Structure formats: structure tokens, C-alpha cells
Amino acid sequence: MRHAAIFLLAAALAGCRQTPVGGAASPAPRADGVIEIAPDSPKLRQIRVEEIGLERMATEEFTAPAKVEFNPNRISRVVLPAPGRVVEVFVAFGDAVEKGAPLLTLESPEADQAAAEFLRAELTLASAKAELSKAQQDYERVLDLYRGDAIAKKEVLAAETTLKQTKAAVSQAETSRQHALARLELLGLRPGEVRPRVTVRAPLSGKVTEFNVVAGEYRMDTSQPVMTIADLSTVWVAADVPETSIRLVHPNEFFEVRLNAFPGEVFFSRVARIADSVDPANRTLKVWAELDNRSGRFRPEMFGVVRHAEGVRTVTVAPAGAVVQMEGHEAVFVEEAPGRFRVTRVRTGKRTGDKIPILEGLQPGARIVVDGAMLLRGS
């Protein structure tokens, strides 16, 4: 009786191991790697199968954290051209301004001094020209007398020397006038103005992003900006590219940009500059890429990531969720017939998004489990 009971128990256990997935236990792969699931099994309804095909994928790529920054080539920190009292301010923080538009006016002692210097230079030049005209006439008169033997040659030489000196004086006066005029233009003034006011104008079109000036205050320090204007029609995306991937980056190439503020959207920027040295702390190089921002959507300090792909090739591609680890190797489940799957070892490439290239083990057209592979893996 005892031997009969042991035999019946062993038979029952063997029957449990062979029970289809519809039961409480899952079937283990056979020696040939095949798993079969009964047609009425609930597990079969949780498994989705798709046919895989060929796609073009990058041979090498990287992603890197990134941040939107001002375009340093399109930002201006406005300073006063001279000390003085701010009379009027025509803009405010956040305003959009056009290049050449007045920002503020300034009363400055330097403006008065520049206007006076120009007036003196004008008077000096007029006097020098009058002296030159007289010296020219005297020289011609003395030369005529010398030709008629009325005077000695030394008189001609003296008149010629005077003429040369007056020509030099005119040249010097013209130079002084040009310098005085240049100083007026630097201050934005016109010749002849009485009690002139300096008008500070926008050096470029953009938005006032920093503002630090009030009408009525007197400013002595001309090195401190009174406001900052940034042209936001383009911005830079600063990315920390791993040292091992910098060989893939070249000027004027394109980065894909994904920003946290715009989930699901992809933008394209052009590499404008690559840092000259590696950050020793995290072994990355800073790369700046220019991003078109005429829409005004992108704002400095936004965070995101950049992606760059180097070269493409056509390979068999499967959804990343179809590949599982089995006994230390990558594998997929190939459908041979409804409810019949074979464990197939594969070699994969680098994953891109939710897709992974299958380099060995599968051919295009194969039908594999793309959803529910973990259910079979546990079988």
C-alpha cells in the first residue's frame, strides 16, 4: 500500500507540471525552448504579438542634460556714455524695443564741454583758413614783385615759409574739429546745440531683461549697466556632453532638443560653439547650440535634454519591451503558431527611445511577443 501511494503522488505531481497555463501553474519551456499555452488560457489574452521589420537607426548617439541660455552674441548691457543726471526714462522692465529707439536722456557736464570744444574748434578752423587765404595772397604778390626784380629773393622765401605754416595750422585745426565732432557723435549730440541732452539709444532690438535706473538720479559710475537688452529671436541651448561622446560633435551639426516645458515636442538646434576644456568634476564638455526662438516660446533657464545621432543604418528593429534576459542572455519569444512560442536568443544594439535594434538572431517578418513577454519569461 505504501508503494502504491508514493506512485500515485509522483504521478499527480508530474501531471501538475504538465498542466497548461490555464491552470494555477505555468508550463516550463521544453528542451527545444518551446512554450505552449492552451487556447482558453487567460494568459494568452494578455500577450500581444507583432511582426517586426527593418528601420533606419543611428549607429552611435548620446543624450545630455541641457539648459536654455541667452545668446551671448545678441545681448547688450547698456551703460551711460558720461556722468550726469538722468532726465527722462522712456522704457521699463520687460518692454520690447527697436534698435536705435531712445531709452533715456541725460544732462551731463561732459556734453556741455564737448559742445564748447566743438565750437572752439570751428572758430579756430575758420581763423586758420582766413590766415591761409591772406598768406596765399601775400605769397602771390611777393612772387610777382620778385619776377619784376622789385624785391629780393629772401622776401619770397619768407612769404613761402609763412604760407607753409598757415597750411599746417589749417590742417591741425581740421583735425581738432574732427575729434570734437567725433566726441559729439559719441554722446549722440549734434553740432550747435545749446545745453545739449545726451540721448542713450537701444544698441539692438530686443527686450529689456534687466533694469536699474530712475529718472532724476545722478550717475557718476559709467561702468555699471543701467539696463540689459537681449534679442530673444534666438537662444542658446547649453548641453553637458560626455567626454566619451564629444568626438561625435562638430560645429553646425544639429541637436534634437526636448524641453521639460513642452513634453512630447522635439526641436532642432545648430551647434554654435564647443568648449575648449573638459570639466574635471563630471568629465563633460559644454556645447552650445543655437535655437530659433522667433515664436518666443523658449525662455532662458528652461531645462531639458539634447540628443545627437551619428550616422544611420538599416537594421531589424523590435520594441524594447520584447527583449528579456534569460540565463544571462538576451532573448525574444517568436510565435510559431497561435499559443506556441519559441525562446530565441538575440544580440541587440543600443536602445533608442522605445526601440532596440536586433543585430543577430531574427529576420524581418518574424512575429514576436511585444507585450507580455515577462509572463512567458516566468513560465
Description:
- The protein is built from 5 helices and 22 strands.
- By secondary structure, it is an alpha+beta fold.
- The strands form 5 sheets. Strands 3-12-15-14-13-16 form a 6-stranded antiparallel β-barrel. A 4-stranded antiparallel sheet has the order 1-19-18-17. Strands 4-11-9-6 form a 4-stranded antiparallel sheet, with no helix packed on it.
- Strand 20 and strand 21 (355-360) form a beta hairpin.
- The longest helix has 39 residues, at 109-147.
Question: Tags for this entry?
Answer:
single chain; 379 residues; alpha+beta; conserved putative lor/sdh protein from methanococcus maripaludis s2 fold; Elongation Factor Tu (Ef-tu), domain 3; OB fold (Dihydrolipoamide Acetyltransferase, E2P); 4 domains; six-stranded antiparallel β-barrel; four-stranded antiparallel sheet; 5 helices; 22 strands; disordered N terminus
Number of strands: 22
- What is the top-level CATH class of the largest domain? Mainly Beta
Broad shape = elongated
Spatial separation of the terminal alpha carbons: 36 Å
Radius of gyration: 42 Å
The CATH topology of the largest domain comes to Elongation Factor Tu (Ef-tu), domain 3
Q: How are the strands of the largest sheet arranged? A: 3-12-15-14-13-16
Our count of helices gives 5
- CATH evolutionary superfamily of the largest domain: Efflux pump adaptor protein, beta barrel domain
